[in-house]
Amino acid sequence: xxxxERQARIVEIVKNSSPITGExxxxxxxxxxxTLRPDLTILTMAGVLEARPRVGYFYKEKKKTSPYMDRxxxxxxxxxxSLPISIRExxxxxxxxxxxxxxxVGSLTVVGEGQTLRGMVxxxxxxxxxxxxxxxxxxxxxxxMTRMPNIIMTTADEPVLxxxxxxxxxxxxxxxxxxxxxxxxxxxxxxxxxxxxxxNVTKLFVQIGSLGAxx
Amino acid sequence: xxxxERQARIVEIVKNSSPITGExxxxxxxxxxxTLRPDLTILTMAGVLEARPRVGYFYKEKKKTSPYMDRxxxxxxxxxxSLPISIRExxxxxxxxxxxxxxxVGSLTVVGEGQTLRGMVxxxxxxxxxxxxxxxxxxxxxxxMTRMPNIIMTTADEPVLxxxxxxxxxxxxxxxxxxxxxxxxxxxxxxxxxxxxxxNVTKLFVQIGSLGAxx
Lengths: 215, 215
Fold this sequence. Notes:
2 copies of one chain form a homodimer.
Chain A: H1 5-16, H2 22-29, H3 33-45, E1 49-52, E2 56-59, H4 67-74, E3 86-87, H5 93-103, E4 107-111, E5 117-122, H6 123-129, E6 146-147, H7 160-169, E7 174-182, E8 188-197, H8 198-212
Parallel strand pairs in A: 3-4
Antiparallel strand pairs in A: 1-2, 4-5, 5-6, 7-8
Domain CBS (chains A, B): 80-136, 145-211
InterPro entries (chains A, B): CBS_dom (IPR000644), CBS_dom_sf (IPR046342), CBS_domain-containing (IPR051462), HTH_11 (IPR013196), UCP026546_HTH-CBS (IPR016842), WH-like_DNA-bd_sf (IPR036388), WH_DNA-bd_sf (IPR036390)
Keywords (chains A, B): CBS domain, Repeat
């Protein structure tokens, strides 16, 4: 279980003096109740704390695994990924930008024979290249792309939650979804089979929430 | 409650012939069980269907509002937003791009006096402007920014779920978080107090999921 520093302090306080109200926790931390609200909501939602109306918060000693959480962790990247949009590494930066607009995506995978992953280019990479004196029409995209082994990847089997964590941790918008294979020289290669983005996560979040709404 | 077309068909099938297994539903739809997995998981998670091991899926006639879902809908933009990064409309496109890199953000709010919202520029807008013959150092950002009334906004009070839906619906990465006020001419204006992005949604998704993991 991963807490932020503040969440860890809240849990400690509730452990040591439950039941305790939100106001009392806030006072101990020198914060307002409003500031604590999201942390208390998330800790309760996750089943770490229990909130009893007009009594206060309790620490849940024997936490049951929430079936909701279990199901959330069963979701796999392969079921929510988008199609990859790929280019070759010898095309110009200018043509890469044009491809991004015609395909309406925020990143491109750069591939060799057999859709083998060679690089990634993001909107950010392309935008940065326009700041210098680079001739966008002449310089190939291979000059500015992120290369192996610096590409953060995911697989169809990976839990959506893990892939989402990679996106936030590495501050990137897209993970290529790959399948590993061994080439004729015995080296590990990756075939690109999709892309997984913050947009996929946001859509999933909305879908889960919307379906829950009682109409 | 919002279903995708396929989810609506699944719900119809389960309504008419429950209990029914995943394989049987798949057969009726001419799809594989694997293809249906994410839909069945989400429908179960949302409390629309009930899955009983070795029996099959049931339609939940009397749906209880899930406390988990209730809490999810209580989360407000104001508790999860980021700080806004703002510029003036007379600065050059080039300087806007530089600001985006020095501040490490994917969008900028363009403001007038008193942080009044005048426009938005995204990485996509800036990248598009580099494709033409525009002199990036000379042309002000006001020429390419999205203007009122075309800016999609959110407020601190809005549920995170609604704001996330706006992001997916309008295919944008950032919503300015605003507070409306009436200026001295009696016109409605918006003060920028934050930004809410797909990154905020992804972080929240990860946080909810991570806290649920039993250690």
